[in-house]
């Protein structure tokens, strides 16, 4: 029964181009990998309408003081953690974007046996970060059927928290559990079942889209400049508060006046310049 179910998943099927993968030259393997990766971009493009809906939901909840909380297991969990962590230096996030992974942070480098198969573990993890109705939970699962993610989405729904599902198979189980569902099907991996390849690439691209565009929409970008970066090196520390500096220079005002303009305009630089 399980075998038949897995065989229906695109992520678990054998790629006909690589049935003799171990006999190919390095150059042949690289060319096939590159060709297969092209499919990722087209499938992500097809999913843009659903990605847009997800971003609108995330922005709405962030403006309510909520958080974007990624939940996942294995590669999906690691990609969620990567995206959340990268938001800290890029956008000076504190807890606006966080990630929970089956087995905890130690599972980032070493799998924790049985963690992803637990329907209850994500519920406990979400409780531990004090999930509220202002948050949005995004379940990430290449297969679309990971129990850890299913349990987390079900718990979020049970307390009326907004949900998003991202999977790499069509008609995924987790899609039925979410307010917004994103499904990308890039086809079978060149190495059967290794979803760290095309599926992982698709997930990373989509999380980049969701977090970056969401941060743009809540005022952390001016033009195409990062203006809310965390000063983590000498160059940035010397600049101090980038938003305040921009408003001071472009409106010829004092630091206090610039801070007041930004506070009045919820931190949006462009609106502060027009105030």
Could you explain the architecture of this structure?
There is one protein chain. This protein is an alpha/beta fold and 275 residues long. The protein has two domains: 186 residues, Rossmann fold; 50 residues, no CATH class. 48% of the residues lie in helices and 11% in strands. The protein is built from eleven helices and seven strands. The strands form two sheets. A five-stranded parallel sheet has the order 2-1-3-4-5, with helices on both faces. A two-stranded antiparallel sheet has the order 6-7. Helix 4 runs parallel beside helix 7, helix 5 packs across helix 6 and helix 9 crosses helix 10. It is globular. The model has no long low-confidence stretch (mean pLDDT 92).
Descriptive terms for the model:
single chain, 275 residues, alpha/beta, Rossmann fold, 2 domains, five-stranded parallel beta sheet, two-stranded antiparallel sheet, 11 helices, 48% helix
Number of domains: 2
Query: What is the terminal-to-terminal distance?
Result: 64 Å
What is the CATH fold-level name of the largest domain? Answer: Rossmann fold
How would you write the strand order of the largest sheet? 2-1-3-4-5
- Would you identify the CATH architecture of the largest domain? 3-Layer(aba) Sandwich
Proportion of residues in extended strands: 5-15%
Order of helices and strands: HHHEHEHEHEEHEEHHHH
- Which percent range fits the helix content? 40-55%
What is the average of the pLDDT values?
92
DSSP summary: helix tally:
11
**Apparent shape:** globular
């Amino acid at each position: 029964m399980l075998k038949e179910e897995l065989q229906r998943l695109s992520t678990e099927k054998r790629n006909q181009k690589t049935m003799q993968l171990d006999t190919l030259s390095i150059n042949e393997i690289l060319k096939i990998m590159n060709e297969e990766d092209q499919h990722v971009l087209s499938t992500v493009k097809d999913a843009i309408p659903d990605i847009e809906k997800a971003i609108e939901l995330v922005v709405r909840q962030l403006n309510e003081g909520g958080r974007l909380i990624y939940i996942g297991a294995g590669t999906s969990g690691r990609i969620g953690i990567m995206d959340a962590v990268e938001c800290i230096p890029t956008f000076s996030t504190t807890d606006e974007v966080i990630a929970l992974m089956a087995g905890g942070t130690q599972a980032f480098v070493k799998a924790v046996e049985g963690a992803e198969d637990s329907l209850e573990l994500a519920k406990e993890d979400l409780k531990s970060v004090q999930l509220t109705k202002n948050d949005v939970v995004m379940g990430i699962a290449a297969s679309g059927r990971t129990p850890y993610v299913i349990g987390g989405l079900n718990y979020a729904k049970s307390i009326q928290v907004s949900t998003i599902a991202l999977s790499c198979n069509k008609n995924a189980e987790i899609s039925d559990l979410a307010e917004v569902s994103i499904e990308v099907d890039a086809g079978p991996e060149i190495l059967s079942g290794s979803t760290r390849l095309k599926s992982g690439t698709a997930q990373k691209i989509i999380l980049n889209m969701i977090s970056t565009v969401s941060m743009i929409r809540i005022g952390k970008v001016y033009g195409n400049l990062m203006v809310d970066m965390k000063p983590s090196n000498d160059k940035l520390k010397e600049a101090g508060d980038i938003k305040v500096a921009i408003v001071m220079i472009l409106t010829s005002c004092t630091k206090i006046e610039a801070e007041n303009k930004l506070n009045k305009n919820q931190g949006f630089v462009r609106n502060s310049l027009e105030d």
